[in-house]
Amino acid sequence: MSAFPWVLAAGLRLTGTERGFPLVPALSFVPYGAATAVLPLAAAVRAGSRTGVLLSGAAGAVLAGAVLFRAGGRVAAPQGDGDLLRVATVSLRRGLVRAYPVIDLVRQHDVDVLAVAELTPDAEKALRAAGIDELLPHAHVISARSGSTPSASGAVWSRRPIRSMGRTPGGFEQPWVRLATDSGRDVELTAIHTTPPSTSPSAVRAWSDDLAALPGPERDVLRVLAGDFNATLDHAALRAVVRRGYADAAWRAGRALAWTWRPLRLPFPWLGLDHVLVDPRIAVRAVELVRVRGSDHRAVVADLVLPRP
Description:
Number of helices: 11
Distance between the termini: 60 Å
Strand content: 25-35%
Oligomer: single chain
Largest sheet: 6 strands, mixed
């Protein structure tokens, strides 16, 4: 058995040089590569190939190290009574998710801010009819642009008043809102939904552009990016966003190995495509992954503790 696919994946992951299609979507499967790296190693041992053993072993070590790095991110929960903000993401699967599972998510987890992807006009009407405005009375909804699919809409619903709002550039609508807090600084949250890079070279370029256009942290605002990045932490483009000064909430909470997306009609793959990236001044108390009936994504519910004034 040739070790080339494992060696290639390890080289790309180690150097962060994956570019274009199909290398970018292939890097989503690094955990699967790590889990199966024993196969080329066993084949090389059986064939008596010293070179094969060395290459397979090195590739397996690189892939396993990349996966285990995520498991090591546990940060102790902060103490004290700082301003707690509970953020949740939800993807409505082209608007097909019914309203009441979303309402249940907000109510049962006492969500303060909800970032919504794949919203449609019908889904918005259903959510409002089900009472989302009573639970989260402040909203910023951006409808899909002319010529786009209706599920390209995005929204943020908030329990806290919105001071200002806008749109982050991207292939899908990505609304942002600024909320007043007890910390003395505003919190700005963007509902993320990047173009999936899984189908073509042009889709990969659009995905790369979407990630590159995301705002970085700033001194006078506490910024949070929450939603479907269509990227795992094995993608160099997402790690570049984190390196601008963000922290991945799931990594800080020791949950970065958990999956957030899987196809509804297939048993595999399970991938971690949804994230909550936070200004490093924001502490992460906990992260929970919650199934939402009808969605192919699990909601990411993050308890964030804002810094004191």
